């Protein structure tokens, strides 16, 4: 699952760089057409290459019984707050880059490439650490990094950064990508380890549903708060990362044995 999370993180990074360049050249609507085409390509790949599997005859626990497990719910809500932070941060970041530093959308790549290079290295480090059994601690640390990135984005002087220089957005942006792309490979692995035999699909499904709901909630909240003081958005970001940190500290993933032929 960590290996599957790595290309997701890489695609996120590539999208961050290419998105502003495409929108600057062809307009923002072009991004929606592009995602529609990529989605259809993905459907074709799944239909053609995804192997058919036979479900074991053994009875499976109900979906509700999966959600009644506290460790599964904690991980699900970690995914919720992780994505809520992501969408809120990305809603606000370009407003600051363009509004305060006057960088046009076509010039975002000069800011994003250093951020991406830093997070690309740390993402693999997070994945390797998770393979060695440090996933829970690394995920908790990633939420702390997200909180620091939020504070520095809105109050760079706290970290000794000059608010008038681009480092005031590059450094917090880099910290954000380090924290988020670190969670991308770690969290799916923790979720898969928490699944009881025969419930991997339901466990992973509940996690992903909460992730998408978090993306919706974070973007909506950032949009609603944009008309007020920036401190409101910062408080929401810090709160999301702090709750994720506390939830991760409470995760106690059980040691479960897979049954032959189980999912």
Write the layout of secondary structure elements.
Elements lengths: L1 H25 L2 H21 L13 H5 L2 H30 L9 H46 L12 H28 L5 H26 L4 H20 L14
Helix pairs in contact: 1-5, 1-6, 4-5, 4-6, 4-7, 4-8, 5-6, 5-8, 6-7
Describe the structure.
Helix 4 runs antiparallel to helix 8 and helix 5 (109-154) crosses helix 6 (167-194). The chain has 263 residues and is mostly helical. The chain has helices at 2-26, 29-49, 63-67, 70-99, 109-154, 167-194, 200-225, 230-249. The protein is globular. The chain has one domain (2-49, 64-249): MFS general substrate transporter like domains (Growth Hormone, Chain: A). It is built from 8 helices and no strands.
* SSE sequence, one letter per element: HHHHHHHH
The named CATH superfamily: MFS general substrate transporter like domains
Write down how many β-strands occur, each being a DSSP E stretch of 2 or more residues.
0
- Oligomeric form of this entry? single chain
Shape: globular
Name given to the CATH architecture: Up-down Bundle
Helix content class:
over 70%
Sheet having the most strands: none
How much strand content do the residues show? under 5%
CATH topology: Growth Hormone, Chain: A
Give Rg in angstroms: 19 Å
Mean pLDDT: 84
Main traits of this protein?
263 residues; mainly alpha; Growth Hormone, Chain: A; 8 helices; globular; disordered C terminus
Summarize the structure.
The chain has 263 residues and is mostly helical. The protein contains eight helices and no strands. The protein has a single domain (2-49, 64-249), classed as MFS general substrate transporter like domains (Growth Hormone, Chain: A, Up-down Bundle).
């Amino acid at each position: 699952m960590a290996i599957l999370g790595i290309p997701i993180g890489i695609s996120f990074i590539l999208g961050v760089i290419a998105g502003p360049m495409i929108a600057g050249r062809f307009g923002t609507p072009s991004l929606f057409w592009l995602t529609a085409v990529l989605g259809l390509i993905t459907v074709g790949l799944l239909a053609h290459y995804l192997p058919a599997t036979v479900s074991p005859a053994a009875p499976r626990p109900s979906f509700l019984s999966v959600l009644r497990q506290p460790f599964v719910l904690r991980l699900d809500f970690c995914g919720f707050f992780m994505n809520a932070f992501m969408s809120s941060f990305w809603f606000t970041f370009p407003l600051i880059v363009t509004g305060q530093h006057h960088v046009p959308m076509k010039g975002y790549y000069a800011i994003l490439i250093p951020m991406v290079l830093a997070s690309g290295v740390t993402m693999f480090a997070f994945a390797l650490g998770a393979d060695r059994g440090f996933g829970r601690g690394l995920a908790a640390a990633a939420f702390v990094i997200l909180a620091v990135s939020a504070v520095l984005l809105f109050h760079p002087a706290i970290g000794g950064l000059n608010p008038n220089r681009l480092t005031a957005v590059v450094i917090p942006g880099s910290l954000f990508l380090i924290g988020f792309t670190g969670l991308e490979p770690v969290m799916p692995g923790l979720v898969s380890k928490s699944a009881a035999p025969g419930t991997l699909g339901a466990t992973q499904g509940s996690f992903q549903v909460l992730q998408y709901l978090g993306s919706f909630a974070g973007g909506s909240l950032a949009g609603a708060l944009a008309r007020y003081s920036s401190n409101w958005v910062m408080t929401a970001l810090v709160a999301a990362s702090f709750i994720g940190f506390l939830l991760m500290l409470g995760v106690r993933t059980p040691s479960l044995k897979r049954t032959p032929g189980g999912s």
